[in-house]
Write a structure and sequence with these properties.
The complex is a heterotrimer of chains A (291), B (794) and C (161). Chain A has helices spanning 15-25, 38-43, 79-84, 86-91, 93-100, 105-108, 113-119, 126-132, 150-153, 227-233, 240-252, 264-286, and strands spanning 8-11, 29-32, 51-54, 64-67, 70-74, 136-141, 144-149, 154-156, 159-160, 167-174, 179-186, 196-205, 208-217. Chain A has 291 residues and is of the alpha+beta class. The longest helix of chain A is centred in the C-terminal third of the chain and has 23 residues, at 264-286. In chain B, the strands form nine sheets. Chain B has a seven-stranded mixed sheet, sandwiched between helices. In chain B, a hairpin with a 6-residue loop joins β11 (209-214) and β12. The two termini of chain B are 52 Å apart. Classes of the chains: A alpha+beta (291), B alpha+beta (794), C alpha+beta (161). Bound molecules: flavin-adenine dinucleotide (FAD) and FE2/S2 (inorganic) cluster (FES) (2 copies).
Chain lengths: 291, 794, 161
């Protein structure tokens, strides 16, 4: 079997402790959250950190709460909790849609929201979900905390705004009236990474879309939020033709590669089809038509 | 621990003395985590071996620097091909009498080929040390595309073979070419299609591995190994390494699935043996999953051009095929010498044909060797897929219902034994009832009505039919061998004085439940309860010689041996009983478990009484030796030919092309049933394999020969969510030549299900005018087919 | 480094290398070989154990991370000679063939039944979908878990207390 190269292990006892360790140990150190992205990479020796800082004891990072006009989620919240949360399902059904099809139930018991966003795998689902919902990220360091929008957080494949001495601690999602959201994914088999997935969130009033976003996964870099789609959504009246058009805009803005999961043409087609479906459901939900 | 402690819900009829549903004897240890798999073995002083593999598909080795690895504090030895060559051990024979490098000396011929190995004190250190070995390669162009492997300008892969100037391995043909062509020339309808069976992998959940322990003074080698054929392995080691055979003991402990993957001998086993020999300590080698998928016995990889000829009324006249077979860098196929293409000759299927002809060309490519594994019954999987797919193409062309077309062309019951146009003699069969039963279970007509309605609405629903005839139980030893060893099986039965028994088999379970089934065979024949019968297997020191478990041969061959050896013991018991009851042998009748005097049932002796007498001090009939035991070696007179009718129902999302297998109905006929529970389990597993191969499994390569299927993230195996709740049924047509009428069942479903699934998907796509699409039918490949893009997978 | 954890109700304290994977700690260091290993990419689930009552792929956790936690392996399912209904169900319904995936499947089943005593077939299939069985085709595993659900006793191994 494949095994990681040697490293030193430290268990952080608080966020401050974790950040202090990270600052002290420098760029050779990594946090380990669920470990379900990092350990497979270490076994393949694609990642060879010299220190691992275990942040699983940081109880202060496991939560999903409502605070005035936003939902706050601790970075260590596991997939399983995101799936089970009724609070999230009520306001952002896209989470439950997505979590049902992220990895498998056993992986979901360990993998975390923070780990997913920090891994920034181009096929990873939660970056698209969070970007679509206009979330922002709380990043802490010894200098204090800064808040970065998801758009700025997600720099590119495997790259985020989190610096070597920083830690992602929280994700904040604004609560706005008239919202609806949905997620659609096609996978070759349960537990597989997406062939393509598409998330949509809209905010509506009087039958019109005031604001909306679309984020795709597995169709190339920088698709967690597609600008032209957001523009098209603004002020639009939903209709089947319109869903089709939005799907086409989404497809036009991605650059998938042919691989074992599918041909570029198929993925482009899925980008369109899944966006259309997500949008249709998101609108229905915004109008209270679907649980 | 006895296995048949009545569990709360077990009824009496579920504890048969003989055939019937019986809980498995192997389960009590396995459900407690007390199995003993190779990687569970830990010996004092045991070292760990890890193999360095080639990163490229084709390259000359310029140099290997092992010094840094040797300097690692926990490393005991680093061995390269050159070191092995010095001992004459750098090459070994394959199961088809080709040669294969144990460690590469001259060049590497496939990506992940074995180049060197490290032996270290623990497995983590052995892995670390691999990173410290520096190999310089001089890259060569790889031969990846099987279709161009014989072109004049491609590199010669096997330049190690004297005088080799191309990548050709063998040509093989069967049937009458001229007669077949004549039928084709005058047929009303001819349909042709290129049908591809991509490279797939058995991927048992336990990878391959071994622990080798050479005792320094006596030279005794004990090898615990994931082997489906321990006796054959031992003999090969004796022949290759020159080790005396009586000093080799191969033990196959619990095995975590085989499916053919654990038939061949892999370089890793040889490396572990050499390491233990050289170092004088036990050495363990366990593959990681990548090694398993990229270097050990793959399956299939056939490009088949198929033609079928028929009358316009749908009478099938002939089938013809031309096959290009990719065998990888070494010809590692486990095929009998006379049958380099295995039993592919049964591509004539279950139909009464006028003529048939197949031609095959096998070539080397820069890919992993192997070629016969994965529940294939020696290439029957490919043969059945070919005929069941091309029959569906014909149905498409004739616009006939595929079930009707099959029913019209079946070999009739009175034609058995039936000799096919390629010379195979089907022992028994009654195909129509099996087909009708499957159709009834499925509600076939209702499904077709539903499909018609759905098509009106633009919904895609498909109903796939396949009907297969398998040829299993290799084989008559005059025709069938592995490396010259005849495919017969020994069996030994000993009844202890108190009437308990031990039966020793040459075959080996990898999950099929031999410890239960074989106890039942003996129980059926001699009336001793199965819980009183110990089944010993998987240990060459403690079992008679035989060729092992693969190709569904355990029940047809070893099962027959078990029945016959028991009858031999029973015959002796009858003589002893005649003495005990003071009547002649002819006056005794057998009621499972006891002999009684005909006409006076009160006068009887049980088998337990007889066993005690056989070992006791009392008199035995004149000339009879004491004891109650026997041994035989069973040489089957023919193969057995199980068959089955499968129906698969799928729904396809027309917009995403995602396929959902809604239902799967399987009616199997494996002759006499020993344990229906186990039979059902064998069928279920094979059906899941079929869904996997049809829809997701494939070992793919890029144009440089890099393997793209090297992990379970890339090589997909179905989960509980892709597989339906299987609906199974059976008919019983005993084999006339098998002592209990049983046929094999281990591979039926793996053979029969892929065409049913593919036929269902293609049927669903009929509104798109599609007649054929190649596996694996992933959503992308289905969608591309719907767009009219036919892209072969290889 | 030193790790201390509870395994099947017993506290163990061992010196380990930080990089030791939990699956190897359990198998090689503690000799509890009922937990299996089958892949390098966290896909197969033959290594599943319960950590604080939840199924986890032990090949994708460090032993170091498990320190301070409560682990249940297949060896812990049988309590005082009483088989867990899940174990009994697997025997009764032919839920295993080679038995390699079985320990992981049974532990996931146990955790499922602790949370949902009467799961539907769909729920069962979903629960075991991160684990591969190459032998059974899953139907009999589903039946085994249903059997266990119908025969639950007050045994409730591994439920987080
Ligand atoms: C079999 C399998 C299938 C999967 N399928 C999917 C899928 O379909 N879709 C999907 O989206 N994901 C999938 N995943 C990934 C899964 O969701 C992972 O759990 C997730 O990507 C990473 O979460 P983690 O907590 O395990 O992160 P870890 O592996 O612990 O960490 C990942 C990276 O993030 C860093 N990190 C973690 N937390 C922080 C923090 N708070 N601050 C700063 N840096 C941090 C780590 O240092 C590391 O570099 C799959 C994983 C597996 C094993
Ligand atoms: S060993 Fe395969 S998931 Fe853990
Ligand atoms: S029983 Fe063999 S893998 Fe499941």
């Amino acid at each position: 079997m494949q095994v990681p190269a040697p490293f030193e292990y430290e268990r952080a006892t608080s966020v401050e402790h974790a950040i202090a360790l990270r600052t002290q140990l420098g760029e050779e150190a990594r946090f380990i959250a669920g470990g379900h992205s990092l350990l497979p990479m270490m076994k393949l020796r694609l990642a060879n950190p010299e220190y691992l800082i275990d942040i699983n004891d940081l109880d202060e990072l496991f939560y999903i709460t409502r605070a005035d006009d936003e939902i706050r989620i601790g970075a260590m919240t596991r997939h399983r909790e995101l799936l089970d949360s009724d609070l999230l399902a009520e306001h952002f059904p896209i989470f439950r849609d997505a979590e049902k099809v992220i990895a498998d139930p056993v992986v979901r018991n360990r993998g975390t929201l923070g780990g997913s966003l920090c891994q920034a795998d181009p096929s990873e689902d939660l970056s698209a979900v969070c970007t679509t919902l206009d979330a922002s990220c709380v990043i802490k360091s010894t200098d204090g905390e800064r808040i970065v929008s998801m758009q700025d957080f997600h720099v590119g494949p495997y790259e985020t705004a989190v610096g070597d001495t920083e830690m992602l601690t929280e994700i904040r999602i604004p609560l706005k009236a008239g919202g609806g959201s949905a997620y659609e994914k096609v996978e070759r088999r349960a537990g597989d990474w997406a062939v393509v997935s598409s998330g949509v969130a809209v905010w509506m009033s009087n039958g019109t879309i005031d604001d909306g976003r679309v984020g795709l996964a597995a169709v190339g870099p920088n698709t967690t939020s597609i600008g032209p789609v957001a523009e098209a959504l603004r002020g639009a009246a939903p209709s089947e033709e319109f869903y089709e058009q939005v799907g086409e805009i989404a497809a036009a803005n991605c650059s998938p590669q042919t691989d074992q999961r599918g041909t570029a043409a198929y993925k482009t087609h899925l980008a369109k089809e899944l966006t259309r479906r997500s949008l249709r459901r998101a609108v229905a939900r915004a109008q209270g038509q679907e649980a | 621990m006895t296995t048949t402690e009545p569990a709360p819900d077990t009824t009496e009829e579920e504890r048969p003395i003989g055939f019937g549903r019986l809980l498995r004897k192997e389960d009590p240890r396995l459900i407690r985590g007390m199995g003993n798999f190779v990687d569970d073995i830990s010996l004092d002083g045991m070292l760990h071996l890890a193999i360095l593999r080639s990163p490229v598909a084709h390259a000359r080795i310029v140099s290997i620097d092992t010094s840094a690895a040797e300097a690692h504090p926990k490393v005991v030895a680093v061995i390269t091909g050159e070191d092995l060559a010095a001992q004459g051990l750098a090459w070994m024979p394959t199961l088809s009498n080709d040669t294969q490098a144990v460690l590469a000396t001259d060049k590497v011929r496939f990506q992940h080929q074995e180049v060197a190995f490290v032996v270290a004190e623990d497995r983590y250190s052995a892995r670390d040390a691999l990173e410290l070995i520096d190999v310089e390669y001089d890259w060569l162009d790889p031969v990846v595309d099987v279709r161009t492997a014989l072109d004049a300008d491609v590199p010669v892969i096997r330049d190690d073979l004297d005088g080799k100037t191309d990548n050709h391995i063998f040509d093989w043909e069967t049937g009458d070419e001229a007669a077949t062509n004549a039928v084709f020339d005058s047929a009303d309808v001819v349909v042709s299609e290129e049908i591809i069976y991509p490279r797939v992998h058995p991927a048992p959940m336990e990878t391959c591995g071994c622990v080798a322990d050479v005792e320094r003074v006596s030279g005794q080698l004990t090898l615990w190994c994931t082997s489906q054929a321990p006796h054959a392995h031992r003999t090969v080691y004796a022949l290759v390494a020159g080790l005396p055979e009586h000093k080799i003991r191969v033990i196959a402990p619990d095995i975590g699935g085989g499916f053919g993957n654990k038939v061949p001998i892999y370089p890793g086993y040889v490396c572990a043996i050499v390491a233990s020999l050289v170092i004088g300590k036990p050495v363990k080698w366990m593959e990681d999953r990548t090694e398993n998928l990229v270097s050990t016995g793959f399956a299939r990889d056939y490009v088949m051009n198929a033609d079928i000829a028929a009358t316009k009324e749908g009478k099938i006249l002939a089938v013809r095929t031309n096959v290009l077979a990719d065998h990888g860098a070494f010809n590692g196929v486990a095929a009998p010498t006379k049958y380099p293409a295995g039993f592919f000759g049964v591509f004539t299927g279950s139909y009464d044909l006028e003529a048939a002809y197949a031609k095959m060309t096998a070539v080397y490519t820069n890919k992993a060797p192997g070629g016969v594994a994965y529940a294939c019954s020696f290439r029957i999987t490919e043969a059945v897929y070919l005929v069941e797919r091309i029959v569906d193409c014909l149905a498409h062309e004739l616009d006939m219902d595929p079930a009707e077309l099959r029913l019209k062309n079946f070999i009739k019951p009175d034609q058995f034994p039936y000799e096919t146009k390629t010379g195979w003699v089907y022992d028994s069969g009654d195909y129509e009832p099996a087909m009708r039963k499957a159709m009834e279970m499925a509600g076939y007509d209702e499904l077709r009505r539903e499909q018609a309605e759905k098509r009106e609405r633009g919904e895609l629903m498909g109903i796939g039919v396949s009907f297969f005839t398998e040829a299993v139980g290799a084989g008559p030893r005059k025709d069938m061998d592995i490396l010259g060893l005849g495919m017969a099986d020994g069996c030994e039965l000993r009844i202890h004085p108190t009437g308990k028994a031990v039966v020793r088999l040459s075959v080996k379970t990898q999950g099929q439940g031999h410890e239960t089934t074989f106890a039942q065979i003996v129980a059926e024949e001699i009336g001793i309860p199965p819980e009183d019968i110990e089944v010993v297997h998987g240990d060459t020191d403690n079992t008679p010689f035989g060729l092992g478990t693969y190709g569904s041969r355990s029940t047809p061959v070893s099962g027959a041996a078990a029945a016959l050896v028991t009858r031999k013991v029973r015959d002796k018991a009858q003589i002893i009983a005649s003495g005990m009851l003071e009547v002649s042998v002819a006056d005794l009748q057998w009621d499972k478990g006891a002999f009684s005097v005909k006409g006076d049932p009160t006068k009887s002796v049980t088998i337990q009484d007889i066993a005690m007498r056989a070992h006791g001090a009392g008199d035995l009939p004149d000339g009879l030796e004491g004891g109650l035991e026997a041994q035989i070696c069973y040489n089957p007179e023919n193969l057995t030919y199980p068959f089955g009718a499968y129906i698969c129902v799928v729904d396809i999302d027309p917009d995403t092309a995602v396929v959902k297998v809604r239902r799967f109905i399987a009616v199997d006929d494996c002759g006499t049933q020993i344990n229906p529970m186990i039979i059902e389990g064998q069928v279920h597993g094979g059906l899941a394999d079929g869904v996997g191969m049809a829809m997701m499994e494939m070992i793919a390569f890029d144009e440089d020969g890099n393997c793209l299927g090297g992990s379970l993230m890339d090589y997909l195996i179905p989960t509980a969510l892709e597989t339906p709740d299987w609906e199974t049924g059976h008919t019983v047509t005993p084999s006339p030549h098998h002592p209990i009428g049983a046929k094999g069942i281990g591979e039926s479903a793996t053979v029969g299900s892929p065409p049913a699934v593919v036929n269902a998907i293609v049927d669903a796509l009929k509104p798109y005018g599609i007649r054929h699409a190649d596996m694996p039918l992933t959503p992308s490949r289905v969608w591309e087919a719907m767009q009219g893009n036919h892209t072969p997978p290889i | 480094m030193q790790v201390t954890m509870t395994i099947n109700g017993q506290e163990v304290s061992e010196e380990i290398e930080p990089r030791l994977l939990l699956v190897h700690f359990i198998r090689d260091q503690l000799g509890l070989t009922g937990t299996h290993w089958g892949c390098d990419t966290s896909n197969c689930g033959t290594c599943v154990v319960l950590i604080d009552g939840e199924p986890v792929k032990s090949c994708t956790q460090l032993a170091a991370m498990a320190s301070g936690h409560d682990i249940t392996t297949v060896e812990g399912l049988e309590v005082d000679g009483e088989l867990d209904p899940v174990q009994e169900g697997f025997m009764q319904c032919h839920g295993l063939q080679c038995g390699f995936c079985t320990p992981g499947m049974m532990l996931t089943a146990r955790a499922l039944l602790n949370a949902d005593p009467d799961p539907s077939e769909e729920v069962i299939r979903e629960a075991i979908s991160g684990q591969i069985c190459r032998c059974t085709g899953y139907s009999t595993i589903v039946r085994s878990i249903q059997w266990a659900a119908d025969h639950e006793t007050d045994v409730s191994v591994g439920s987080a207390s």
